Structures are given as C-alpha cells and as structure tokens.
Automatic annotation (TrEMBL):
GO cellular component, one term: cell outer membrane
Protein name: TonB-dependent receptor plug domain-containing protein
PROSITE patterns according to UniProt: TONB_DEPENDENT_REC_3
Location within or outside the cell: Cell outer membrane
Ranges where the TonB-dependent receptor plug domain occurs: 55-164
GO MF annotations, alphabetized: siderophore uptake transmembrane transporter activity
Stretch forming the signal peptide: 1-20
Pfam families recorded: Plug (PF07715)
Key words, A-Z: Cell outer membrane, Membrane, Signal, Transmembrane, Transmembrane beta strand, Transport
Gene3D superfamilies (UniProt xref): TonB-dependent receptor, beta-barrel domain, TonB-dependent receptor, plug domain
Amino acid sequence: MKNIATLINLICLMSYPVYANSRTDALKQLMDMSLEELGMLEVEVQTVAKTAQKLSDIPASVYVLSGERIARSGVRTIPEALKLVPGLRVSKFSETEWYVSARGFHGGLYNKLLVLIDGRTVYSPVYGGVYWPGIDYLLADIDRIEVLRGPSGSIWGGNAVNGVVNIITKRAESTLSSLVEGNYSNKQDYGLGVRQGFSISGETQGRVFYKQKSNRSDLSYDSETWLNQTGGVLFAHSEENRDITFRAGANQYGYERDWYYWNGSQWGPKELDVQATSAFGQLQYAQYLVEGVKWESSLWFDYNKDNAKDAPGKYTTLDLDTNYFDYSDSETQWQVGAGARFIKLDFSGAQLSEWDENNVDILYRVYDVRRAHEQIFNAYGQIDKQWRENFSTTLGVKAEYFSQTSALEISPQLRAMYSFSESQQIWAGVGRAVVAPSYIDSNSYFVYYDATPKQVVVNPSDQLKTESVVSYELGYRITYHPQISLDMTAYYSLHDNVVMVDSFDAGDIINAFTTDDYQGTSHGVELAAEWCVRGDTRVYAAYSYLHLNLDWQGGDYSNGASALWASIEQQHLLSLQLLWDINKQLQWDSTIYYQHWENKNISLDDVVTLDMRLSWQYAPSYPKVEVVVQNLGGVGSADDLNTVSRFKSEQIHYLRLSYEF
C-alpha cells in the first residue's frame, strides 16, 4: 500500500502543469496543427522492413522513442532510455551494468533481443546478447530509437526473437554545428562529450565526436571506478539518385578492483585489471533506380577484445548485406535480400586445458576450443499486398544457415491489417524466430564460488537444439482527434528448446548443466499512449503485463529447477513521462517508473521511482543548464532477482551543461 500511495502522490505531482492556466497562443498553435502532424500517422519507421514506412501502415507492434524524449528524460545511458518503451524490462546489475529484455527470460545473458545501431548488429557471438557498457553514443546525436516487439526473424534473422531495438543516429546535415557538454553528479561521477560537424560540399557532410564518462559500479560503498571512452566519425554523401554513408568508431572501458583466488589451501588477494576494446567500420550504399525501386547494400566489420573473467576472448566480424525494394506498384510491393557474416573467435587466453586448481579465481570462464570460425548465410523475401483500400497483408520468410550447428532455420511471418479510417487500424500477425547459437552455451565452462562457499561449475553442451518462438499477435491503434494516440498489442507465444542451466549438488562441488529440456508459453499486453494536453505540455504513458510459464520436459542433465525461477506469475511495468515547456527558457520534465514482479515462489518488493529534470536556456544560441534528480522514492530498492542480495539503488543528483554553436 505504501508504494501505491507513493505512486498516486507522484502522479498528482506530475499533473500540476496539466491543469495550469493554458496560454492562448499555445492553444491556437495546437488547433492549427493537423491530425497527421500531431498523431502517429506521419511517423516513419525503417526497422520493420529495412526501409521507411509510415507507422500507421505497419501491421506490427512498433514503438518510436524520439531523441527529444530521451534528452528530456534526464537519462545518461541508452539502456536507461529504454525504460520508456512498453514491453521492455530494464534493470541494474550495478551502476555501470544493465539488463535489458523483452517478454520474459530477463537476465545478464539475455539473447532474445536483437540490438542495432544504424542497422549494424551489436550482439556478441560469444554469448548472443548485448553487453551494454560497451554500447554508447552522444545522446544528443541520437535521432530516435525504434523498437519492434515480437518475432522479426523473417527480416532480421537470428536473435530477433522477442524484439528488435534499432538505435538511429541523426543525419550528418542535422549536426553541422559544434557541441560541448558535461555532467557531474553528487556521487562524483562525471561525463564529457564533444562533437564537431562539418560540410565538405553541398552533397557531403560529416561529424566527429568523443565521449568520456567515469562511474563507480556501486554508489553505496567505495567500489571500483569504470572509465568509458567512445569516439566516432560519420561521412555522408548524397546525390539525386544515390546515397553513400561511412561510419567508424571505437569504444574502450576498463576498471581495476580487488580480486581473490584460491591457492589450494586458502583465499588470497590480488589486483584485477579489466580492459575491453571494440572498433568498427561501416559502409552503406543506396541506389535509387527508378521511382519506387531501390537497391541497398551494407558492409561492416567490428573487432572486440575483452579480458573480463566472465567473458574473455577476442572476435572479429565481417558482414555483407544487400536488399532490393520494389514499391513502384501501389497495390503490390516486394523486397528480397541476402547476406553473409563471417566471424573469427580467439579463446586462446582462457583455455580449459591450462586450468590450474591451485590458482583459481573466485569467478572465471574457460573454453574447450582455442579458435573458431563461424559463417552465417541468409536470404529472405517479403511481399506486401493491398487487396482493398482498407485491407492489406504482409507475407515474408527468411532462411538462415548457422555453420556452428550446421542448422538451416526458416523464419516465416504472416500479417494482415484492416483500416477503419486513416486514424484507426486493427492488425494481426503470426511469426517464428530463432536464437542464434553461442559459444558460451556450447563450449565454455563457467566456475564461481557461491556464498557457502562451494565451487559451482557450469558445464556446456554441444548437443543443443535451436531455441525458437512462435508468437501470435493482435494489435489496435487509434488517434483521437489531434491530441490523443493509443496503441495496444496482445500476444501469445510458444517457446521451444529453451536453454536453461540446472544445478546438481555433489558435496563440495555443485555441477550445473546447460540444457534445452524446457518449453514454455507466455502471454501479455502492451499499451502505449500519447496525450498532447496543449501546445506546451505532453504526456506519454507505457504499460505492459506479462505471464510466463516454463515446463520441464525431462532429461538426464536437468531437474526442472529452472522452471521455478524463470516462470512469471505476473509482471507489471509502467512509465509515465511528462514534458512541460514552462516558457521559452524553462522546461520541467518528470518520469514515473513502476514495477511489480512475482512468481510462485518469490516476489520482489514493488518499485516506484520518480526522475525530474529542470532545464534553463536563455535562447537557442546560448548554453543550456540542466538539473536532474533520479530515483526519488527508490532508494534501497532492488529491481531484479539477480541483484536483490548485492545491489541497491541510490538517489542521484547531477548537473549537466551543454552548448551547441
């Protein structure tokens, strides 16, 4: 009841500007705007079909988080911003590490959400997920984040199981100015960023940026400090019938901390120095052949090196992707594409054969393979048919071959949409997607000591079948008048060959085994709403409900224990964001977050937090000053089972200064 009362009080606090005296000029501006300008109808999305589409034409669960909302939310990292998206669960493992998931199976090795930056995948082939500390960018230069919930394997392939997150940065011509920014918190954390845009000619523009931040992993005690540095460059050349874009960048983060090892008879201290480095280059080419016909190709590579004890290794990826779009016929539109990915992995620095039982770290991972080469090949096709003015269908399929498991996987989808009017649609769809295989599941041994302390050994399996999901979705979206937009999705999913880890106590050692002996079902509802109260005040709401039931199918190396903690009786997530332009110089913004989570055996305390931001800028050509308070009401709370015993949230205040000129 205490948390519910807190939530009500916070909502009342947020609602104050909604009922303040409205200004005549703001109302006039609102009434002069068309429904299409205010609603979701003219929002363009490119994640669903790899090309721009109007949101109102898409028979899928799509959400667009604008760069303005990200900036005004007061967040300092990309995963923090994703808390505003319906259906995404975001939690902290520490102040520097985040878990992000969609539609269940939340955890640090989450591999059912494909994450891209400007169309380039950033998941790790080592474990199939995304390590968020290495994903960074100047938030001021992010144009929007598009989130496609549900299976998207027919377009994007492996790991697009429960969703796709596409982080889209601003075009070069939008960032021709100079930017300097910095922030400093009451916990002695800081961040610095600079960007310089430039124009080489009327057809060629670019920018270069650098960002550095320093954060302690835990604010409640004297923990290690992480130093994260990111830099990049963009060149964009545009002609009448073609576009060429080149991007390159690098990221490095690291920290030092006290560590412990077992010398055969007792624990001893030592110093641990963790460093991770990544670099990438990306070339994109688009040729507009005739009106409505386009050919696009992309070539990118990335290099990653990490010496962290839980995921050591080096890998290099080369990816080639090409797509052909024919939208020249208003009734029948189609696209085809193919791609190849080549991955080279090096685990020579963490070998099982070199393991020394008298020099054992408190936590470490080793591999039974020294080096590996993996290839992934794919081809897809999709056709959109407008049968009548108000009824359309989408049929697509993708074939994908994984050399690691010698598996050919087929990911189809079928979707249909009926439009009652230009502002109201209902849609339904069914699709299948698969989880790409990972070397952590098939070739790594993870060893750590629990609180007993007993040694826990997580064993791999090279006999895992491909994990997959089939989801049935039903959606409805409507724009009421010019001011209110509503988007609703309900889904039911069937999960097969779900990979989990079950433990068996064998005295001094606990043996755990990676297994695919699980199946499951899940269902849920996701809601998004936008209310333009008046010209200077907007409210955004996002809510999701999830129930997940995991069943053990029996097996020699499993015992059903994973079904107990992975199943979810009910999960409720809510965010409510208010943006208020007090006048031309002042902005006051606030965001409420609410989480309720429970399963049959345990439940977390409800978490209710409030973030607030006050911004002042005398004029657009002047510096901007922002004061942000985060996690009001959430001090001491834990938002995930994985961290409930080791990490508690803290209240943070910080000052941010920025100047664009």
